[in-house]
Write a structure and sequence with these properties.
Elements: E1 4-5, E2 8-9, H1 14-36, E3 45-49, H2 69-80, E4 84-90, H3 93-100, E5 106-109
Parallel strand pairs: 3-4, 4-5
Antiparallel strand pairs: 1-2
Length: 115
């Protein structure tokens, strides 16, 4: 198990995992973009991240300092001009708060109804 920094697990494999996610999202969004143009499809891509983390790992003091999955999605969607709705779920309060202030994301923290 990787050590936790502010409730986020980061290991020597995190950079590879995020590069792979970026590739998969890029391919998937290109394929889906074509389908969203069909008359029978809702023209909005729905993205759900059930373990979103803080979105940005640069402030965690870890060996991986790049973007997390929510920001990778935003970057890839912006490249293609995809109309989307992004909902991120995060149970760690410190990570959810970091994510909360990112534009174009809806954050659903698990136990913080005062938000």
């Amino acid at each position: 198990m990787s050590p936790l920094l502010d409730g986020v697990g980061i290991s020597s494999e995190t950079a590879t995992k995020q590069e792979t996610l970026r590739y998969i999202l890029g391919v998937h969004l290109r394929i889906t973009t074509g389908l969203l143009k069909k008359s029978w499809a809702e023209p909005v891509y729905h993205y759900f991240d059930l373990t979103a983390g803080p979105g940005d790992c640069s402030q965690l003091g870890a060996q991986y300092t790049g973007p997390g999955s929510p920001l990778i999605f935003l970057e890839e969607a912006a490249k293609l001009g995809v109309d989307y709705r992004a909902v991120c779920f995060e149970q760690e309060e410190c990570s959810a708060k970091r994510l909360y202030f990112k534009p174009n994301l809806t954050v659903r923290p698990r136990e913080y109804p005062e938000w």
